[in-house]
Amino acid sequence: MQYSDSSRASSAAGRDSASEGKVVAAYGKRLLVEDAQGQRQPAFAARRGLRLVCGDRVLWRHQDAGGDLAVLERLPRSTELTRPDSRGRSEVLAANIDQVVVVCAATPVPDPFIIDRYLAAAEVMGAEAAIGCNKSDLADTAALDMLAEFSRVGYPVLRVSAHAGTGLQSLLRQLADRCSILVGQSGVGKSSLLNALVPGVELATMEISSASGEGRHRTTATTLYHLPGGGTLLDSPGVRDYAPALDDPRMAAAGFREIVAAADHCRFGNCRHMREPGCAVKAGVEQGQISARRYESYRRLLRLTEDLRPRR
User: Fold this and answer.
1) What confidence tens digit (pLDDT) does each residue in 125-155 have?
2) Which of 39, 98, 126, 231 is paired with 24 by a 20 to 30 Å CA distance?
3) pTM, rounded to two decimals
4) Which domain holds residue 53?
5) Is the distance from CB of 144 to CB of 155 less than 8 angstroms?
6) What is the pLDDT of residue 269?
7) Same domain for 222 and 144?
8) CA distance 272 to 263
């Protein structure tokens, strides 16, 4: 659908009478916006360059009777979940998130380095983080040992099973009164968890599919749902790999809370914790106080960020 320059000018002129809403799904140029009354309506960005993602707070107005909503502008974001694009530039995946919940499962085999990177993204953007182990009834000793590593660093680890219905109340308490996003590898059962946590979610996704014009619903775009006990939950597509987009390689250390704590005791204030003498982080690894695997995860994220930097 094409909109004229006069339509865009009309939208800009109507900002003073615009209403506030929230983007609950974004499919390229097509949006679904929830108004103050909780009604969800199709919408479009009223000007070029206005890039919106799920969770964005926006100002909108009616374009014409019975037409889609015209989103005039995006309000400031409190947080952004990002990843680097093919050119190393930051791509925002979702906005205004209070908590990142990394879902893993017995199958596929959990990748602790992907979990690390989602946790690092939460640390860097100032959000809380937790881990949900789905299919926990199938988890083996190795998987549970890996999760214990995250518990020792201070992250809540919740063992749940969408199939058996166990652990769901604990997860709901973790999600209550927050805007959380479910992230993780493909096949870990995020959709099954969503179905167990949100009553009537199948009807809601059908409505979203109809409003967006996407046909049968699949988790191809991040979508926001309301939880019965309070709070909102964003369901995101599964990934094969993930890394946060960091403006400076030095920010990689900020994503690992145990490294942040140890870095106060490094000899040099700008220590990268690689080959510098008097590094308290490396000493912590050697003494078993910092996980060698987590330290290797930090090194990988640092090198990745350094490699991406020349592409920008």
Assistant:
1) 999 999 999 977 666 777 778 889 999 999 9
2) 126
3) 0.89
4) 5-74
5) no
6) 92
7) yes
8) 9
